[in-house]
């Protein structure tokens, strides 16, 4: 085993334990994790886009919005966090319209802000939020792993050769099937049931995860970056690790607000109950 592979495995284990521990604890611990992810993702995005050079005022407005969003997430004020994200993105776009680059600052605010807000709101404080996050982890991590191995083993036509040459249709299909299976299995273990909605929701989350991966690959290709950053030994940046997860979390966040609820009412717990039909 090469030194680089050992480093990747060690980093993945440490990160996995930290993420699962914060997920288990919930409350302020997981909200803090969501905020850390949001801030680092915004930093990596704006650094790749050179936002501070191209549109310094737009970049400053974006940072103020992200920091305000962080405060509102930590204090349990999701409506205020949403307002900060939208106002910050609008302000950054307007401030950078003359020099260019404002659109990228606005995109960074939306991407990072909604990532942090969706994660924090899905987990919440209750048991249903824990189940919902485990459901999402099972789908995204399984789909990503199987897509990698099946894509390498089977090969075939590329999924999006101009954006991410390494991804294949065979990998995407195998990953989707495995992700849906993992989601159904997790739901069955949690609630000893399932229903037709669970595999459909799992499929939507798999598709969102793939789109998130492709979006991040497109951003890196757009700015000529191999990795989003270098903060994680052997893996690159935080965006490189959470690109699929945050898109899936946002899709789950939207679905959770659209689906009917059959469980307890109240904030994030209701959101998670809607997602899993608890």
From TrEMBL:
GO cellular component: plasma membrane
Subcellular location as annotated: Cell membrane
TM ranges: 12-41, 61-89, 101-120, 126-149, 169-190, 196-215
GO MF term set: phosphatidate cytidylyltransferase activity
Keywords on record: Cell membrane, Lipid biosynthesis, Lipid metabolism, Membrane, Nucleotidyltransferase, Phospholipid biosynthesis, Phospholipid metabolism, Transferase, Transmembrane, Transmembrane helix
Catalytic activity: a 1,2-diacyl-sn-glycero-3-phosphate + CTP + H(+) = a CDP-1,2-diacyl-sn-glycerol + diphosphate
InterPro entries in UniProt: PC_trans (IPR000374)
Listed pathway(s): Lipid metabolism; Phospholipid metabolism; CDP-diacylglycerol biosynthesis; CDP-diacylglycerol from sn-glycerol 3-phosphate: step 3/3
EC numbers for this chain: 2.7.7.41
Membrane topology: Multi-pass membrane protein
A single GO BP: CDP-diacylglycerol biosynthetic process
Listed Pfam families: CTP_transf_1
Protein family according to the UniProt entry: Belongs to the CDS family.
Entry protein name: Phosphatidate cytidylyltransferase
Native species: Hoeflea olei
Highest classification ranks of the organism: Bacteria, Pseudomonadati, Pseudomonadota, Alphaproteobacteria, Hyphomicrobiales
